[in-house]
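The protein record filed here:
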Amino acid sequence: MRDTPRLYVDFQLAERAEHALTQEQAHYLRDVMRLKPGDPVRLFNARDGEWRAYLGSVTRKAMSVICEKQLAEAAPPPDIDFLFAPLKHARLDYLVQKATELGARRLRPVYTARTIVERVNLDRMKSNAVEAAEQCNLVYVPEVLEPEKLDRVLAGWDRGRALIYCDERSDGEDTLSLLKGLSLPAALLIGPEGGFTAEEREGLRRLPFVTAISLGPRIMRADTAGTAALALVQAVLGDWQP
């Protein structure tokens, strides 16, 4: 089963249910993987979990799959949102893929004062999240939210959700000790490549639901910082705990 192609689908998965695949999925299975009618595939979504299925009809224009048996229940990760300033192309692709692998439940792009990227391709973000979930045996794909300005996000914040803010100028308390004092639900906020402005840092630190942490003595690129911070949060608050 490990080498069986694995696809994320939007349709309902149930015993003996038959559905048509998208043209892109059909092309991958037929022309890249060279599968034939009756060959096995694995299908999953966040509602019905993961299912073993097999190919039904296969033509040059269409392909169907027939569900056979459930292999796993849907498995949403811990309730951790990942907020980040959008990056350019390849770095954003990398960040979305790693955030998915590391178990972010929601991906929330936010515009800060120094954010360079003005537009976000949400379809590309979703595709990267799906690809990461397919390759890493996740039975869940994080929700991708519409981008918003940081001040608007903070104004409408649910105060029952702790917001962990990575501040390269933070010092004093130990990062792990700070994280151990928090609980889920939580969210992690990473700034843009140029960092937060002094006004943004001061505004964040005044909010009672915000905890500022340090990522150590080195200045990291935004995509590196996001990956490192998510690993820390999962290790202390998420499902990496023993």
